């Protein structure tokens, strides 16, 4: 079958894509950072767009999640006004659409953008307005994309409940779920257990960053104690799989994650930068895909990783020989795992994704 072929870079670029783990404050254009920094008198490492892109990438290649997160000081600093948030959200949407993304859940922590007086509501409303403007501009360019918002709270700050309440307030207005992000080690997801219980009582969707910088206990707590529907990264579930014998043997937790079809929001390039894995060929996504975990492929932070969905797809094609069928599977997995209503997920799969892959793979 034609889906069993390996796609070319041009074909990958044109494939319909879905991303469910992408951070807004990690997706700014270098040119935009420079312009916004100039407006507020913020000093950057360089005012050359190409060199600034180099700086972000090099700073994030530290092998440390903590150092990786430090680069966000710059992007957060230039996103403290309604106008800047709208611009960044709009441009982020357009960039995704130009890369073939047809559905995206983009997350951001509204608490970070209130330093100059904006309220949480104003941040959320500006973000959603930016997404809608980006969708319109993308459509004018011939691209169709739908972007929904996930609201993050930082696990080391005390704002989780306030942000969760905004998820409920705006869930019919562009917000589809909740997440906690930030440093994992020392800040277990159970610190926000009351908030997760509140969200479940409100029938709200949420994902949790777990199993990236911290191992299996983080994943277990996120799922079994907090009730996470998805795992943000979750890459270290591989530590519960014995690969020493002729056949992989799943431990109890890994088997539970696979059996329950709990989605893994995997971000290969980002995982390399933070030291979760040593190189792309040893990234667990190859094994997890073969073992039929609910694998999804994502960007995490496009600026910091200097990446895109096309780049992530090309990386796994190069490393694991993935075919159209593999890429279609993880794209459909992402849509199946999205936080929009089931019938809307199915419509995108049947009307956009399957026809797109079948058409391009038959060229």
How would you explain this protein's 3D organization?
- It is a single chain.
- By secondary structure, the chain is α/β, with parallel strands linked by helices.
- It has a single domain, classed as Metal-dependent hydrolases (TIM Barrel), CATH 3.20.20.140.
- The protein is built from 16 helices and 10 strands.
- The chain has helices at 9-14, 30-40, 49-60, 65-70, 72-77, 82-98, 120-140, 160-169, 193-201, 216-225, 252-259, 268-274, 285-290, 309-320, 324-336, 342-361, and strands spanning 17-23, 101-108, 146-154, 175-181, 207-210, 230-233, 241-242, 249-250, 264-266, 295-297.
- The strands form 3 sheets. The protein has a 4-stranded parallel β-sheet, sandwiched between helices. The chain has a 4-stranded parallel β-sheet with strand order 5-6-9-10.
- Strand 3, helix 8 and strand 4 form a beta-alpha-beta unit.
- Helix 6 runs parallel beside helix 7, helix 8 runs parallel beside helix 9 and helix 15 (324-336) runs antiparallel to helix 16 (342-361).
- The radius of gyration is 19 Å and the shape is globular.
- The relative contact order is 0.15.
